[in-house]
Design goal:
Helix content: 10-25%
Largest sheet: 4 strands, mixed
CATH class: Alpha Beta
Number of strands: 4
Strand content: 15-25%
Number of domains: 1
Shape: globular
Radius of gyration: 14 Å
Bound molecules: FE2/S2 (inorganic) cluster, zinc ion
Length: 122
Amino acid sequence: MARFEKHIFICGNQRPSGHPRGCCDPEQKAELRKAFKQALAERGLKGRVRANQSGCLDQCEHGPNLVVYPEGVFYGHVTLADVEEIVESHIISGKPVERLVLAEGCINTASCEHKPRKAPST
Ligand code: FES
Ligand SMILES: [Zn+2]
């Protein structure tokens, strides 16, 4: 069997509510992973592109997060409404969805404008 061409690792980590770093899937519903699996299957990409649930990707303050390999492109603040666009633009056409790509200054840095996580404005 051929190797997978791409992997989409989708953080499914859960932390208690009120945790200062937050988490990507507070209700542990894995909805993003399910949506990616469905979108890939609908396009006949099963067996070529894999959507995996991952543990914490250590980018929590920008969540929900995922990363696409082999490119190593991190996406943050991803919603169900973004799944089709990421699959069509990045996975199929090779063009990352820039508006959702995490900035270099946000990845694996001790601080950025999002750390510590800002309280939602209400
Ligand atoms: S909880 Fe998702 S990146 Fe840490
Ligand atoms: Zn940031």
